[in-house]
Specification:
Rossmann fold; L-2-Hydroxyisocaproate Dehydrogenase, Chain A, domain 2; 2 domains; 3-stranded antiparallel β-sheet; 43% helix; globular
Length: 315
């Protein structure tokens, strides 16, 4: 069956899935969007609600559907899973959400699906590895939303700290999308200017305590939001919209998505959020960016924690 690049499906219609659907409607990336949920009424309600806004948005068809509707999809976004509770880490979600992912993979692989899988459910790095292992699809076609959101937070906070447009800030959060993630300060720059050089030209300083404060704000942001409103969904919807745009428009853009490593950075049997080139075929190239000595060690520690969890799944 031919792949329709303008057709997408979202599996899981909770806050995150519905917010991503709304973002897709705003972007006008797809001509058809299918919503799938274990609760059929929920999927139908979201499709009806979104369709009411079509006269003021992009021309597209939004329907509730079943797994049979994904066969010709260019992109399938998976958000299904149980929510993160206050005080709970993303890794503590794994046993519950790995079982859900296994069920979903069984449904998808039973169909002639040839598109891209984009995993958003948490813990996203572990579940990206799980989805790729269970599906048997090439790693290029199974990617996770990774630290695209965290990287956006880093750019925003650095922009505020330096009084500069965050779109001119270039920096990455890598590793686990979670507590062991790390900021690559050694490669951070503002429109090509090394971060330290930019600060010097502006008469500012960004000492280690300030960097640690920014890092902690990024790392703990999800928990802070969850404590206040129960869940996070707008930010991740924007991040997923960015990834989807890279795929549909074949942008060859660099984003820190979650990918299965096969020797890159000396790591394997794990999925990590790593700067990668993203285009129509999903993952095009994993970039082995230069890391400082401490950053490299932190990345290896992050990988070790995730690998331990993955090994416990016995995939």
């Amino acid at each position: 069956m031919a792949v329709n690049d303008r057709k997408a499906a979202i599996i899981g219609c909770g806050f995150v899935g519905a917010s991503i659907a709304f973002r897709f409607l705003q972007q006008g990336l797809f001509s058809r969007l299918v919503l799938i949920d274990a609760n059929r009424d929920k999927a139908e309600g979201e499709a009806m609600d979104l369709s009411d806004g079509l006269p003021y948005g992009a021309a597209m068809e939004i329907t509730a559907g079943t797994y049979d509707d994904i066969s010709d999809c260019g992109l399938v976004v998976i958000t299904a899973g149980v929510n993160q509770k206050p005080g709970e880490t993303r890794l503590q979600l794994i046993e519950r959400n790995a079982a859900i992912m296994g069920s979903i993979m069984g449904e998808i692989t039973a169909r002639p699906f040839q598109g891209i899988l984009l995993i958003v459910s948490n813990p996203v790095d572990v579940l990206t590895y799980t989805a790729q292992a269970l599906s048997g699809y090439p790693r290029e076609r199974v990617i996770g939303s990774g630290t695209v959101l965290d990287t956006g937070r880093l750019k925003q906070l650095l922009g505020e700290e330096l009084s500069v447009d965050s779109r001119n800030v270039h920096a990455f959060i890598v590793g686990e999308h979670g507590d062991s993630e790390l900021a690559v300060w050694s490669g951070a720059n503002v429109s090509g200017l090394n971060l330290d050089d930019f600060c010097r030209l502006r008469g500012q300083e960004l000492h280690q305590p300030a960097r640690e404060r920014i890092y902690r704000e990024i790392r703990d942001s999800a928990q802070q939001i969850i404590c206040r409103k129960g869940a996070t969904y707008y930010g991740i919807a924007m991040a997923v919209g960015r990834i989807a745009a890279c795929i549909v428009r074949d942008e060859h853009a660099v984003l820190p998505i979650s990918v299965v490593l096969e020797g890159e950075y000396g790591l394997d049997r794990v999925a990590l959020s790593i700067p990668s080139i993203v285009g129509r075929n999903g993952l095009e190239k994993i970039l082995e960016i230069p890391l400082g000595e401490e950053e490299g060690a932190a990345l290896r520690r992050s990988a070790g924690q995730l690998r331990e969890v993955i090994q416990g799944l016995k995939l």
